[in-house]
From TrEMBL:
Pathway: Purine metabolism; 7-cyano-7-deazaguanine biosynthesis. Its EC number is 6.3.4.20. It comes from the Bacteria. The lineage of its organism: Bacteria, Pseudomonadati, Pseudomonadota, Alphaproteobacteria, Hyphomicrobiales. CDD domains: QueC-like. This is 7-cyano-7-deazaguanine synthase. It is an enzyme of class 6 (ligase). Pfam families: QueC (PF06508).
């Protein structure tokens, strides 16, 4: 069964790419501030894995909020980088691309620690998978690392440091700011693994 991965270029999706070796990697520029760096990171990892890489560009920046949109967070935001219905949007766009390629399984990079927002929880993954499966193409959505934290995922994936070093985790721009939640998570994960962050 052909599988696609939503490959953002961040540490989690890069580790899943190494671990699961999808048939296709899909990266989406939806108007987020670090889009270009994410595309470069995802593209390099896809090349290393010899995985076809598709980039989708749909500018939804006018609808974003928080760090990734370069705006103050919405009053309903659970964390500073929250973007309304982001995972729902990305899964829908990736599903549209996947139908063209005969993909039946779509993997996403949700972790146990992503439960801070509703679209990172197991029940969200279950429900959106049922929704896509109801429609033409019969695509299902899976989050293979939903029970793992970032350190556990990296260890489970057995990804090497050189490949993981390509990951771009900053939420606010194309260069690591060192301060946002994404950069802090990146640094803390590398430190917990006993590696020197790049």
């Amino acid at each position: 069964m052909r599988t696609a991965l939503l490959l953002s270029g961040g540490m989690d999706s890069v580790s899943i790419a190494w671990w699961k070796r999808p048939d296709v990697a899909i990266t989406i520029d939806y108007g987020q501030k670090p889009a270009e760096a994410e595309i470069v990171a995802a593209g390099q990892v896809a090349r290393l894995l010899n995985t076809p890489h598709e980039v989708i560009r749909v500018d939804c920046s006018a609808l974003g909020s928080g760090d990734m949109a370069g705006r103050a967070p919405s009053e309903v935001a659970p964390v500073s980088e929250w973007w309304p219905f982001r995972n729902q949007l990305l899964i829908t766009l990736a599903g549209m691309a996947a139908v063209k390629s005969g993909i039946k399984r779509l993997l996403i990079g949700a972790l146990a620690t992503d439960g801070v927002h509703a679209d990172g929880r197991p029940d969200f993954v279950e429900h959106i998978s049922k929704l896509l499966a109801l429609q033409e193409g019969g695509i299902t959505v899976e989050a293979p690392a939903i029970e793992l934290d970032a350190v556990e995922l990296v260890r489970t994936s057995e990804i090497d440091q050189a490949t993981l070093a390509w990951a771009h985790s900053c939420h606010v721009g194309n260069y690591a700011c060192g301060k946002c939640r994404g950069c802090v998570k990146h640094y803390n994960t590398w430190s917990a693994l006993g590696w020197t962050p790049h």
